[in-house]
């Protein structure tokens, strides 16, 4: 994936310092806001290695093995679910903070590294506490916020209370989560029960209600960080869940349409679930920003850019290169 294209897509986060309302853009010459640190919460999309110590069945949520990391300068896996950098790495690099956003659970993490931002994200995690917790070691988003509180205690001892409060106020807090909730708790069940290819108003209503719960829960995490002094937030929407390799493969087998079997197309009814969630999320974030004085919340559209860049072809290349392991996948960035 073109590095410049990826950075351009994520310039929308820069706008949260200049725009009073939620917006989406891919500006070519972004402003250079004064961001002292980035703190990230979520799943494999922004996990730089917090899961490296997982073993047994939980090891399916690790990326500290080849072929991950082959495009990094060291050509070695770091725990990132990518051949190179994660989007949060591009963010901190673009803001001039540091080259990579490190994992919070790295035992070698220094106080200086911590004070300039870390990622608490854990591959396999979801918005709901119960998502994938059967896999021991996966860190729920709620637990990630507890880690943040621990981190703030360390930072306060390092820089002092006043500087710590200033750091939290000026830092960017990024969320990229929800995909695993929709995939494991909703999409796969509908797919393997063969419900997704049949019009079902009850299934649609259940899906809508569940998406509403996810959005509200995610909002509660933002409110908790706001109560701790955070003011700047970036929240990513869902990618097309119907284009995940596992879903495409299952759809090819289970779909009644010959087109699915022969062409390995995305399962569009499941993509509608991603779209519906994203619509709810955007509306909720706009209302949430209005209810939190001095807050700035930017929504990142992760759905359309991936499709525009040929997501199906990207996924096919990933599978051919052996970079996708079970449900997880890596992008060339």
From TrEMBL:
Keywords for the protein's UniProt record, in alphabetical order: Signal
InterPro entries reported in the protein's UniProt record: GDSL, GDSL_lipolytic_enzyme, SGNH_hydro_sf
GO molecular function: hydrolase activity, acting on ester bonds
Signal peptide extent: 1-27
Stated family: Belongs to the 'GDSL' lipolytic enzyme family.
Protein name as catalogued: GDSL esterase/lipase
Organism listed in the record: Cannabis sativa
Lineage: Eukaryota, Viridiplantae, Streptophyta, Embryophyta, Tracheophyta
């Amino acid at each position: 994936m073109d590095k410049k294209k990826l950075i351009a897509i994520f310039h929308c986060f820069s706008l949260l310092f200049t725009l009073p309302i939620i917006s989406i853009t891919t500006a070519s010459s972004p402003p250079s806001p004064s961001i002292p640190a980035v703190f990230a919460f979520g799943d494999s999309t922004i996990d730089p290695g917090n899961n490296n110590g997982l073993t047994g069945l939980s090891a399916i949520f690790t990326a500290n093995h080849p072929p991950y990391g082959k495009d990094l300068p060291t050509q070695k896996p770091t725990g990132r679910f990518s051949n190179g950098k994660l989007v949060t790495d591009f963010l901190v690099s673009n803001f001039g903070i540091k080259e990579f956003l490190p994992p919070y659970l790295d035992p070698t993490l220094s106080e200086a590294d911590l004070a300039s931002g870390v990622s608490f994200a854990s591959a396999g995690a979801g918005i709901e506490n119960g998502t994938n917790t059967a896999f021991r070691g996966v860190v729920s988003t709620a637990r990630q916020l507890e880690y943040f509180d621990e981190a703030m205690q360390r930072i306060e001892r390092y820089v002092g209370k006043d500087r710590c409060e200033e750091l939290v106020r000026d830092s960017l807090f990024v969320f990229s989560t929800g995909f695993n909730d929709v995939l494991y708790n909703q999409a796969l069940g509908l797919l393997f029960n063969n419900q997704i290819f049949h019009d079902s108003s009850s299934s649609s209503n259940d899906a809508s209600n569940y998406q509403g719960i996810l959005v509200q829960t995610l909002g509660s995490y933002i409110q908790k960080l706001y109560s701790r002094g955070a003011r700047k937030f970036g929240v990513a929407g869902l990618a097309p869940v119907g284009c995940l390799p596992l879903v495409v493969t299952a759809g090819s087998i289970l779909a009644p349409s010959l087109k699915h079997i022969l062409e390995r197309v995305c399962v569009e009814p499941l993509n509608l679930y991603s779209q519906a969630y994203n619509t709810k999320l955007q509306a909720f974030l706009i209302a949430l920003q209005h209810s939190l004085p001095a807050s700035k919340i930017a929504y990142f559209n992760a759905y359309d850019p991936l499709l525009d860049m040929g997501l199906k072809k990207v996924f096919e290349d990933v599978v051919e290169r052996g970079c996708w392991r079970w449900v997880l996948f890596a992008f060339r960035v």
